[in-house]
Design goal:
The chain has three helices and seven strands; from the N terminus they run E-H-H-E-E-E-E-E-E-H. By secondary structure, the chain is of the alpha+beta class. The protein has a seven-stranded antiparallel sheet with strand order 1-7-6-5-4-3-2. A hairpin with a 2-residue loop joins strand 2 and strand 3. It is globular and about 45 Å long.
């Protein structure tokens, strides 16, 4: 399992909690998302030189106090990616982490490529989230 994280500034803690409490906001920030239906989604993504369509599902979305936890499973040809994100709203900041695990027939061969892509996408999602929270 790999882990990334960071701290981002936000203007309004209450607005951040409202935004993060609805998992659809997270899904709308996924780059390449083509369709969202309830907790399921379809994404067009790049894995190295390949463009693939991935299907995903929010398996868990939990709000506990000022902490929001999401567990998503993303399925693609020959691989499964499980991503757990935890975002804690502090004093005008988001302290976030994302753990991801890759499995399946192609996981070992594509581990480095998928790992880099998962990190890039995680950072894009948090950037989108922060910009939407901070929008006036």
């Amino acid at each position: 399992m790999s882990k990334i994280g960071g701290v981002e500034k936000v203007r309004d803690n209450d607005k951040a909690m409202t935004f993060l409490s609805d998992y659809r906001n997270l899904l709308e920030c996924i780059p390449g998302v083509r369709r969202i239906e309830s907790g399921r989604f379809v994404v067009e993504a790049s894995i190295g030189p390949m463009r693939v369509e991935l299907s995903g599902e929010v398996k868990e979305h939990k709000v506990t106090g000022r902490q929001v936890t999401n567990l998503m499973e993303v399925l693609g040809p020959g691989l499964t990616l499980v991503i757990k994100t935890i975002v804690e709203v502090g004093d005008n900041e988001l302290n976030w982490s994302a753990d991801y695990d890759i499995s399946g027939a192609l996981a070992k061969a594509l581990q480095n490529t998928i790992g880099r892509e998962a990190e890039r996408v995680s950072r894009q999602i948090i950037s989108c989230t922060v910009s939407k929270i901070n929008a006036k």
